[in-house]
Amino acid sequence: MKRLLSRSGRAARYATRLAPFWVAHPLYRYTPGGFGHYRKLRAQADPAYEFDRDKHPVREKHFGAERLGEPGDDGIVRREYDSYDEYVEHQRQKLQEILRIGRGFTNASVAEARLRFYRRFRHLVRIVPRDATILCLGARQGTEVEVLRELGFRKAYGVDLNPGPDNELVREGDFNRLAEPDGSVDLVYSNSVDHAPDLDAFFAEHARVLKPGGFALYDVHRDYVPGEEAAFEASLWLRREDVLVRALQHFERLRRLQAEPDWTWMLFQEPRRS
């Protein structure tokens, strides 16, 4: 009987942690004109903007697949940047274009993203303390941070090269060169692995800032077919398994692996110190 009561209590606490997401979610899905920060973002649209005429010069060079190199012996396809500064400027343009074109952050797209993040993060409630410091990498406008906070992780925040205007959830920062001290973060999350120019350096930097026993959660995009359009990706892979192998060079344990049609998410634990 005690065991049943204990199990029932855990289930109730788990349901309580999930409830704020479901209370807030209809507001994001059905509020006309967008809810909260998304309404402000949608107001950034520029009716006079024409992409072909007004796009940033770096987008003339990096528009699709034309600046992607051939697959290396490791199965990784890398974008050919002339400098790191060019990489940074290219990556900053993604949000800038979404805002100016004005077709991003529709209620439907925000709700879909929120549900995807919820499916990832609900499992963390059972294994990561509520007071954990969680760092979202390449978080752009911060949808993943919103969902983490709704699940009770109040110390979640994000970094991005271009967090956009008036962003209270995401700081300006480079996920390849983090400002966080060694061993200061409990969990890192990113769905922007394909925006990293050097996968080994990317994983090593995240392992550096994680505490002993810390977690790294990555959403890895599906395999790349050479010749496909790739507007902002800096690295692509012919097989997701190659990304897994690279990540395991920087983490001791693979805690969870789950494949979906377009994404595979990988939860690692215990960073290796280089």
Describe this structure in words.
There is one protein chain. The chain starts with a helix and ends with a strand. It is α/β, with parallel strands linked by helices. The chain has a single domain, classed as Rossmann fold (3-Layer(aba) Sandwich). Helix content is 38%, strand content 20%.
Write the layout of secondary structure elements.
Elements: H1 2-30, H2 37-42, H3 51-54, H4 57-61, E1 76-78, H5 84-101, H6 107-121, E2 134-137, H7 143-150, E3 156-160, E4 170-172, E5 185-190, H8 199-209, E6 210-221, E7 235-237, H9 240-247, E8 251-259, E9 263-271
Parallel strand pairs: 2-3, 2-5, 3-4, 5-6
Antiparallel strand pairs: 1-7, 6-9, 8-9
Helix pairs in contact: 1-6, 6-7
Features:
274 residues, alpha/beta, Rossmann fold, two-stranded antiparallel ribbon, 9 helices, globular
Strand order of the largest sheet: 4-3-2-5-6-9-8
CATH topology: Rossmann fold
Distance between the termini: 49 Å
Biggest β-sheet description: 7 strands, mixed
Beta fraction? 15-25%
- Determine the fraction of residues in helical runs and give it as a percent range: 25-40%
CATH superfamily, called what? Vaccinia Virus protein VP39
- Count of discrete structural domains: 1
Low-confidence stretches: none
